Give the backbone structure.
Amino acid sequence: MTSALVSGLDSVVAATTRLSHVDGERGELLIAGFPVEELAPHATLEQAAYLLWHGELPDAAALAALRTDLAVARELPPATVALLRAAAESGATPMDALRMGVASLSLATPPASPGETPRAVSSVTPAHRPAAETAALAAAVQLTGAFPALVAAHWRLRRGQEPLPNRPELSPAAAFLWLLEGEEPTPERVRALGTYLCTVVDHGLNASTFAARVVTSTGSDLVSAVTAAVGALKGPLHGGAPGPALDTVFEIGTAERAEPVLRAKLERGERLMGFGHRVYRVRDPRADVLGAAAERFYREGGDASLYSLARHVEATALRLLREKKPDRRLDTNVEFYTALLLHGLGLPTDLFTPTFAIGRVAGWTAHCLEQLREGRLIRPQAEYVGPRGRRWTAANG
Ligand code: ACO
């Protein structure tokens, strides 16, 4: 028996989770019990990752051990660096390079399959855990640790620069900025990036997380699951929107052009990037967290005129969306303020989505662990609408 078709699986509940809860009507996001506005301004990525993987925040010793493991994982296998070099030479985008780079992490002999013996990862002890889960947890640490290095190495190679040596004493956020630029990042930039990474660390059963859970549900490994998730995140309807959202602000340029430019886009049937969400029917709470971080950052020395232009563009877009689509509840999503904050941090547009992935990989891997522990094979059905009863004839060859 097949049940009714639900296009896009809208509102279908396909898993239980302890990781994050999205209330789209009230505009609330809980991350392992913490409202996002409580967690993100204070936590580091490594604390948020530990929270998702273990259900509790780490104590000082556990945090130190995790930091060490994440730093070790930033040492990429030589073959991965060679692959990133080839990707840069071929002109691959940062997201395509990240997808290729992640897939090649099997070369670092991470515990690719559940049940395999893990490489030594000091923050993961086998005590009270099935071997498969220990192996998967070690893979989660190694994947999360490698992401800043993968993104930064490809970025430098693409610009004709050599990857920089790892600085094991740095946190993942600080290390990412260092590996990109080779300059000591200021504490304010590290804090702002940390807030960003924690804001996007997990978000229910979004498309990329679902992709990771589907792969894990087949009994496959975390490298495969995260590779699939990167591919899903790349699309403009998911993680690919912040660059275009900022491009729109630049295209508008001055406040008085906001209305005519946005109106023309809507009249051409274009979507306004950074607005609308499958789940939120009110303002995305992450937009508020990032908006506050962006405001603080721009006030302390960023381009204040860009910030006020962006606020004007947002207000105009919301007014026009209400006018043009009165039946739809379209509000600002996370990508609009992602663009503003990451631009303020000095990151180029092409790095916005890969930077999102540096935070989200902790959530993807936590979902893989949860799927491994509790889930069944995910196997929905399709409603067949094609032809029937065809016959093979001689003309078919
Ligand atoms: N601008 C203009 N119209 C919009 C927008 C938008 N940003 N978003 C939705 N609509 C309209 C659609 O045109 C459609 O109108 P219609 O019924 O009159 O044809 C209606 O709202 C519903 O659109 P759907 O695509 O069915 O809604 P869905 O829930 O699938 O869309 C999505 C969610 C894909 C995010 C959409 O709002 C969108 O394309 N936004 C712009 C891209 C963007 O910002 N993506 C980042 C999302 S956040 C994230 O993934 C981390």
The chain has two domains: 30-234+363-374, 243-344. Residues 276 and 330 are 4 Å apart (CA to CA). Residues 30-234+363-374 form a domain with the Citrate Synthase; domain 1 fold (CATH 1.10.580.10). The chain is about 55% helix and 5% strand.
